[in-house]
Design brief:
alpha/beta, Rossmann fold, UDP-galactose 4-epimerase, domain 1, 3-stranded parallel β-sheet, 11 helices, binds nicotinamide-adenine-dinucleotide, binds 2-amino-3-ketobutyric acid
């Protein structure tokens, strides 16, 4: 068993539940402390320690880090793209201050590593639409994207200025069945599977033709752990790594579902999230992650669809 004591902040969210369970398999249940504002998720109960933490309360967070002998933090608390547009000041405040609190504590307590995810939302309408490169024009138009892009540069700053080993991935839209998504523009790609099973039809809030970069959760969890376990000498990007697996539009996910549920029907009624989706790239060039730390995705659309429909 590896000798680390990990704190996961935002452990009850879409990524947090699965990441906490995966980390507990590697490091041992007792060595991965789950924390969130919410009540402990049912899937986490009995698998390891749980503490209630508000990441915005820096003193309380600092006390917990010292009290629990924490050596690594995974910071997952955030307000995502769609919810962020409903209260931009709150999204900016939570998304940036939480990161600054964690980076400061990591510096003071000399933590071995910090993980903080960014998003494809850093890209904006002026970024290349296809195979959007690691380094390119980046002019985000959502508060979420702005907060993520600023966060990437804080990570870079704390690494170069203070030696904090903070690592990051720009996740695409993530699809999973264990824990619900928390208010993103790509959430339709999760909802569609639930409604396909329950009602055999779905009204998409994104229009046909809205192709976006996506990834199945098992790939995202594996990527996160592989990045965190990579040798520091292989990490050339200290802002955040582009990461890709697949790209599809709502009608393509519908066709994939129809291979398993032939009577499934999709219709379209777009809302404010369409504009957010239109501002993002359709596909991502993740060659730097593949070269630096050997990233390779495993799930394509049909393999993911089969697994989602079997497990929901
Ligand atoms: P989520 O909304 O499902 O989970 C976030 C968790 O943080 C929630 O359980 C929430 O209760 C908790 N939280 C909120 N405020 C908190 C606070 N003040 N203190 C402690 N906990 C707090 O989000 P997610 O989808 O799991 O995303 C996790 C991270 O990954 C975020 O940074 C997000 O931007 C990033 N990301 C997610 C996706 C995706 O598709 N899910 C894609 C790209 C990036
Ligand atoms: C969202 O849609 O906001 C997230 C993301 C791509 O960051 N899923």
């Amino acid at each position: 068993m590896k000798k680390e004591k990990i704190l996961v902040i935002g452990a009850c969210g879409q990524i947090g539940v699965e990441l906490t369970l995966a980390l507990r398999k590697i490091y041992g249940g007792a060595n991965v402390v789950a924390s969130d504002l919410r009540e402990e998720n049912e899937l986490l109960k009995g698998t390891g320690p749980y503490v209630s933490i508000d990441v915005m309360n820096k003193e309380m967070l600092h006390v917990q880090v010292i009290r629990q002998n924490i050596t690594q933090i995974y910071l997952l608390a955030a307000i995502l793209s769609a919810t962020g547009e409903k209260n931009p000041p709150l999204a900016w405040h939570l998304n940036t201050q939480s990161l600054l609190n964690v980076l400061d504590i990591a510096k003071e307590e000399k933590l071995t590593k910090v993980y903080w995810p960014s998003s494809i939302a850093v890209f904006g309408p002026t970024s290349p639409k296809e195979f959007c490169p690691q380094q390119t024009i980046i002019e985000p138009t959502t508060v979420y994207g702005i907060s993520k892009y600023a966060g990437e540069f804080w990570c870079n700053y704390y690494f170069h200025r203070y030696g904090v080993d903070v690592r990051s991935i720009r996740y695409p839209g993530l699809i999973s069945y264990k824990s619900s998504p928390g208010g993103g523009t790509t959430d339709y790609a999760v909802e569609i599977y639930h409604e396909a099973k329950e009602k055999k039809k779905y009204i998409s809030f994104l229009e046909a033709g809205t192709k976006l970069p996506m990834m199945y959760m098992p790939d995202a969890i594996r990527a996160t752990i592989e990045l965190m376990e990579a040798s520091a000498k292989n990490i050339s990007v200290r802002t955040s790594y582009n990461l890709a697996a697949m790209s599809f539009a709502p009608e393509e996910i519908a066709s994939s579902i129809q291979k398993f549920i032939p009577s499934f029907e999709i219709s379209y009624k777009s809302d404010y999230r369409q504009q957010i989706a239109n501002s993002w790239p359709k596909s991502i060039d993740d060659s730097t992650a593949r070269e630096d730390w050997g990233w390779k995705h495993e799930y394509d659309l049909d393999r993911m669809t089969k697994d989602m429909l079997e497990n929901i």
